[in-house]
Write a structure and sequence with these properties.
Blueprint: E1 4-9, H1 13-24, E2 30-36, H2 39-49, E3 53-57, H3 65-75, E4 80-86, H4 90-98, E5 103-107, H5 111-151, H6 158-168, E6 171-178, H7 180-186, H8 190-211, E7 215-221, E8 224-230, H9 236-250, E9 254-261, H10 268-277, H11 290-319, H12 323-338, H13 342-364, H14 386-426, H15 433-439, H16 444-455, H17 459-477, H18 482-488, H19 494-505, H20 509-514
Parallel strand pairs: 1-2, 1-3, 3-4, 4-5
Antiparallel strand pairs: 6-8, 6-9, 7-8
């Protein structure tokens, strides 16, 4: 699950420890990576751990919160900040907000107060994260184009040459060649070949991630990919895994060859041509459309970027709890598919499926180690009609929603378990629905509906029945007075307790005791 990192800066040890405990219970969606008691220590800590969020008090010794936030804005202008303050320090807090603090948390504060403010921080963090991923994706697209241009001996700028020489200096190159006989046998059209390229690139990249290999995969020509891997490159087990997976999923054999240490940017085309000429393919018997190869590579990169974008949209809707937004997004994606040409529809359907499976792997089953967990067991085929593709995509979405609902149910089960445990421990106190909801960091109305759905009875009825069961136990096994038992189970008025007990057991507490 995607979680941001937070540093807590608070000079009151007990309050600070209380906040940390709330975060460590895992319900706020953040990891505490450090704590400090003043702004000066916190600055050094922020430099060290690079958090996504700082939760800081205003009034502290050595360096107060205002000065601390001022320093943060100079060195970390985009860092999220939430201010802790008492009512009497509200003017200080307003000054901090002018310095760009996201929100205020007024002390003393309940767990529900903290939850609400942290939800706001989470939404901003996901937005920021999505934007960063988009910038990284755009940068990768640009680099892929520059590398592809160099490999195919196309014009490129001096700036690209300079930047790419730094990228290439630590890399080893590998050539991945799809088998020409298998491609010729399947008689792929241009659109079908694009689908195959997209599927193969996802298989290879998922196996790279699973093996922990730092590498990028580049489609250079219609049947050739080049992998740029950090030295020492790809090992034998990875090569075998790619060959096996390509045969299993796509029924395509693939030859993988080590090209050696990457040369300089200017020498890439000559270097590539040497290995390409040593690997005959269906393309070698006919002229190769260089521009077409470059265009296919760009399309593939854009499709990969679309997968990442969809994953971020799905993750954001799930993590912020926007179930309606998630359903609306999925419905819109299915509707958009129907507007595509039959050829593009297959690629977009596969893009959606890979994004759904990636979200499942990251969010619903983060401990799953299966490298190809993001690859669907079947992919759209060349002979499929538009109706077939829509049906397949709809099935993928329905499977995703079933897993989502199961995941939600497992979370609900955990919530109900924690709620009943809290009630068991606090039934002798006031134990209101709002108290339990606050303990669970849930909206009280939502918790009320959730509780009744899971237990089959209202919260009030559940607590009353538990108290009466405890009273019956005390009546059977102790000589405590009736008013003492009433007090022990959370009733201030003995007469009211007697009436409630009689409603449940059809007799008074005294009559019940006399039966033992």
């Amino acid at each position: 699950m995607l979680k941001g990192n937070v540093v807590i800066v608070e000079d009151q040890p007990n309050f600070r420890k209380g906040l940390i405990k709330m975060f460590e219970e895992g319900q706020l969606g953040w990891n505490v990576v450090g704590e400090a008691s003043n702004g000066q220590d916190a600055l050094a800590l922020v430099d060290e751990v690079k958090p996504d969020l700082v939760l800081t008090d205003i009034r502290m010794p050595v360096m107060d919160g205002i000065e601390f936030v001022g320093h943060l804005r100079k060195h970390y202008p985009d860092l999220l900040v939430i201010i802790l303050t008492g009512y009497k320090n509200f003017e200080y807090a307003q000054a901090a907000v002018r310095l760009g603090a996201l929100d205020l948390l007024i002390k003393p504060c309940t767990e529900q107060d903290v939850k609400q403010v942290m939800n706001k921080a989470s939404e901003r963090y996901y937005e920021k994260y999505a934007h960063q991923q988009q910038l990284l994706s755009q940068r990768k697209l640009q680099q892929d184009q520059e590398l592809r241009a160099a490999l195919l001996d196309l014009p490129s700028s001096y700036e690209a040459m300079k930047n790419m020489n730094e990228v290439l200096s630590t890399k080893e190159l590998w050539l991945l060649q799809l088998n020409s006989e298998d491609l010729a046998h399947k008689n792929y059209g241009k659109a079908d070949l694009s689908l195959l390229q997209f599927a193969f690139s996802n298989i290879a990249e998922e196996l790279l991630k699973g093996a922990g290999i730092e590498a990028r995969l580049l489609l250079v020509e219609h049947d050739r990919f080049v992998a740029l891997a950090e030295k020492p490159g790809l090992d034998e087990s990875f090569v075998q895994a790619v060959q096996d997976a390509s045969l299993e999923y796509l029924n395509i054999r693939v030859n993988i060859q080590a090209m050696g240490a990457a040369p300089s940017y200017k020498q890439l085309a000559q270097f590539y041509e040497q290995f390409k000429s040593g690997e005959p393919s269906a393309a070698s018997a006919q002229p190769v459309d260089i521009e077409s190869g470059s265009g296919s590579g760009m399309t593939l990169s854009l499709n990969q970027a679309k997968v990442n974008e969809l994953e971020m949209q799905l993750m954001s809707a799930i993590l912020v709890g926007q179930e309606a937004a998630l359903q609306q997004l999925l419905n819109q994606l299915l509707t958009d598919l129907t507007q595509q040409t039959p050829e593009d529809m297959k690629i977009q359907a596969l893009t959606l499926s890979i994004a759904l499976l990636g979200t499942i792997q990251k969010q619903f089953d983060p401990d799953e180690k299966e490298s190809l967990g993001r690859i669907p067991t079947d992919i759209p085929q060349a002979h499929w009609t538009a109706k077939d593709v829509i049906h397949w995509a709809d099935t993928q979405v329905k499977s995703f929603l079933l897993l989502f609902n199961s995941w939600q149910a497992s979370k609900s089960d955990n919530v109900i378990e924690r709620a009943t445990k809290y009630i068991e421990e606090h039934y002798s106190e006031e134990c209101r629905l709002t108290d339990v909801a606050a303990h669970l960091h849930l909206n009280s109305s939502y918790f009320s509906v959730l509780f009744k759905k899971a237990t089959g009875e209202s919260f009030t009825r559940f607590v009353t029945r538990l108290r009466m069961d405890k009273a019956a136990l005390l009546l059977r096994n102790t000589d405590m007075k009736i008013f003492e038992i009433a007090c022990a189970i959370g009733f201030d008025e003995p007469n009211y307790f007697t009436n409630v007990f009689k409603q449940q057991f059809q007799m008074s507490p005294k009559e019940y005791r006399n039966q033992r």
